[in-house]
Design brief:
The protein is α+β, with helices and mostly antiparallel strands. Helix content is about 25%, strand content about 35%. A six-stranded mixed β-sheet has the order 6-7-8-3-9-10, sandwiched between helices. Strands 13-12-11-14-20 form a five-stranded antiparallel β-sheet. A five-stranded antiparallel β-sheet has the order 15-19-16-17-18, with no helix packed on it. Strand 9 and strand 10 form a beta hairpin.
């Protein structure tokens, strides 16, 4: 197996106008032996470039790449003992599934009996026995993806690199293959680095998740920690579906309490800015921000909605009008008209709401997040 250490890794590409495009910027990361680490971020954030640097398909501008303590910057891809699974399955169309899986071993002059054993064992693991004699055109999308995975598995490499391998599949097949990938990792006990732009996929697959933006790793953490304790506003907004709601405003001191008051918007007169009282847990960290600007964030599931006549805690209850109702079967998303724009609440599917209905809603301030507007770092 393999431990991967990236130290101050940088990759700069020349732009069309002669400018420098910094795709990966001073990135440091340790992927532990037998870990499944997911690199996640929006398109263009540098995650695929990072994978290509590790695989040897790109040369770093600066920094080092180590696998099991050996610096591999000068090693070619074939000498790094890495298997790379692409977004495009890249199967040979004139070869059967068996031949596609065996091809790499034949190039390395493995004995025929060893090739037969590895392909048969892998096809059993991936449930491909029934279609080993079929060519890619006769396979479903999920089967083609399993063949691509099988071609990597038969080599028994130290490290698997998977570059958005499920993004071309339909939703149901993608969910199935996501589960298969998790089972496969548990079975193989191998080190895997998995790239995706899908944050749900990242949270469900990764032992740890590294969130990237503009070539920089914003945070590396276990999925639950990433969701509950984001390091900055970008991570808080990127991780979670629907994303976290954000409100800009000021921290005010009122007697022994602290209050967040949403900033007034020029030309907006129909709605009242949000004003909510802080929870005791947030108050110590925010006392230094009294009179200063902050960004208040709260996730949709931490907003409870009820008819406006409902009795709720004073200082925590506000009113909004329903703009859109999105039923999803197990739950419903309500898009609510706020002072500076709409925000989203996640409510039980059993509750019924109508467009243009006026509601009172309650923020669960125990789960509130606050960010510094200048640095975007988390305050609490």
């Amino acid at each position: 197996m393999a431990q991967v250490v990236l130290e101050r890794l940088t990759k700069v590409f020349p732009g069309p106008g002669g400018e420098s495009i910094r795709a990966v910027d001073n990135l440091s990361l340790v992927v532990e032996d037998k870990e499944l680490l997911v690199l996640v971020g929006p398109s263009g954030c540098g995650k695929t470039t990072t994978l290509r640097l590790i695989s040897g398909l790109e040369e770093p501008t600066a920094g080092t790449i180590s696998i099991n303590g050996q610096v591999v910057n000068q090693l070619s891809s074939k000498d790094r003992d890495i298997a790379l699974v692409f977004q495009n399955h890249a199967l040979y169309p004139h070869m059967s599934a068996y031949e596609n899986m065996a091809f790499g071993l034949r190039l390395r002059h493995y004995p025929k009996a060893e090739i037969e054993r590895r392909v048969k064992d892998t096809s059993q693991t991936l449930d491909l026995n029934a279609c080993l004699d079929r060519r890619p055109a006769a396979l479903s999308g999920g089967q083609r993806q399993r063949v691509a995975l099988g071609r990597a598995i038969v080599r028994q490499p130290k490290l698997f690199l998977l570059d958005e391998p499920l993004s071309n599949l339909d939703t149901q097949t993608r969910l199935q293959m996501r589960n298969e990938t998790a089972r496969l990792h548990a079975r193989l006990g191998s080190t895997m680095i998995y790239v995706t732009h899908d944050q749900v996929e990242a949270l469900t697959l990764g032992h740890r998740v590294a969130v990237m933006e503009a070539g920089v790793i914003q945070q590396v953490a276990a999925p639950v920690d990433l969701y509950q304790h984001p390091a900055n506003r970008f991570v808080a907004g990127f991780i979670g579906s629907p994303p976290m709601n954000f409100f800009e405003g000021t921290v005010l001191g009122k007697r022994d309490a602290l209050v967040f008051q949403e900033a007034a918007r020029a030309g907006v007169t129909e709605s009242i800015p949000i004003t909510v009282q802080m929870d005791n847990v947030s108050m110590p960290a925010l006392r230094g921000y009294v009179g200063k600007q902050v960004v208040f964030g709260i996730r949709p599931e931490d907003i409870a909605c009820s008819p406006s006549q409902s009795n709720t805690a004073p200082g925590r209850t506000l009113e909004a009008v329903v703009e859109i109702v999105q039923p999803l079967g197990s739950e419903t998303y309500l898009h609510l008209a706020g002072h500076a724009g709409s925000f989203v609440a996640r409510v039980p599917a059993t509750d019924h709401f109508d467009v243009s209905q006026r509601l009172s809603f309650l923020f669960d301030m125990r789960h509130a997040h606050f960010f510094d507007p200048a640095t975007e770092r988390t305050i609490v």
